[in-house]
Amino acid sequence: MRKVLIFGGTRYFGRRLALRLAESGDDVTIVTRGEHTPPVAKGLTFFKGDRTSSSTMKDLGSQNWDIIYDNICFNPYQAKLAVDAFEGKVGRYILTSTMSVYEQGGTNISERSYNPFPGKYDLEKEHDYGEGKRQAESYFFQRTTFPVIAVRFPVVLGPDDYTERLIFHVKRALADQPVIAENLYAKMGYISSYEAAAFLEWCGRSTMTGPINAASDGVLSIQDLMDKIDHVAGTTSRFETTGEEPSPLAPDHDFYMDTTAAKQAGYIFQHIDDWLDRLIEEEVRNHK
């Protein structure tokens, strides 16, 4: 039985991860502020605290952990809190990162496109999402002696996506409202919330360290996505290049990652069509 700590385990793929680990027999502790209803399962316990609080981190660092999953570290200062608390107290640390670390975007982006080991970090400044994640990675990889993996996810979609990015597009199609996108054909990578949790679990059982890309096989443009929705909903989507509420899933240029490193390490990704079509069918039924 492994002793596992999860930051960000009460919703979305963090919740799925917690349940997967508990069902496999791990002793799982979720840190929660109490704002969301936590999952319930044998082997799951809860620690009331705040990821951004030094006292919470110090209390958690009084114990030893086999694995820590950190889904809610967004800047180098939060990374520092973890390093200070868990140095010598954890066997393996898995940081949820993002493809947004690749500032320029592009096609088939490899992990080498952002190297966090010589990267800079500033503990005092506020950072946007991508820069905050870049600097968090840099702090971890430069300042720890314990093994760290930084999992770089693309857009994560699922029935539990509280940001409702897919639902936004389903509602647009059903209401015959235009989708606002400057480039209809720029392609982007995705992963399901189910597979995000599965990949994180797999990382905890691997011996890898360093940054790693994770994404479903296949990429989609906003035109491709709306074609899928139209096929299920029986609608004909319209597009405009400017307007209020632009699509959150329409990049200006191609933006997707190369997952060769994860595949060479033994992970087999689903194809995007294997899960997205079913998800679209579910959301169309729910909102028609």
Task: Outline the structure in words.
- The structure is a single chain.
- Helix 5 crosses helix 7.
- This protein has helices at about 10-25, 55-60, 75-85, 130-145, 165-175, 195-205, 220-235, 260-265, 270-285, and strands at about 5, 25-30, 45-50, 65-70, 95-100, 105-110, 150-155, 155, 180, 185-190, 190, 210-215, 220, 240, 255.
- It is of the alpha/beta class.
- The strands form five sheets. A seven-stranded parallel beta sheet has the order 3-2-1-4-5-7-12, with helices on both faces. A two-stranded parallel sheet has the order 6-15.
- It contains nine helices and 15 strands.
Derived from helix and strand composition plus strand pairing, the structural class reads alpha/beta
Biggest sheet strand line-up: 3-2-1-4-5-7-12
Low-confidence residue ranges: none
The value of Rg in angstroms is 19 Å
Distance between the termini: 45 Å
Q: For the report, how would you describe the main beta sheet?
A: 7 strands, parallel
Q: In terms of quaternary structure, what is this?
A: single chain
Beta-strand portion reads: 15-25%
Helix run count:
9
| Tally of DSSP β-strands | 15
What is the molecular shape? globular
Helix content: 25-40%
The overall pLDDT average reads: 96
H and E order: EHEEHEHEEHEEHEEEHEEHEEHH
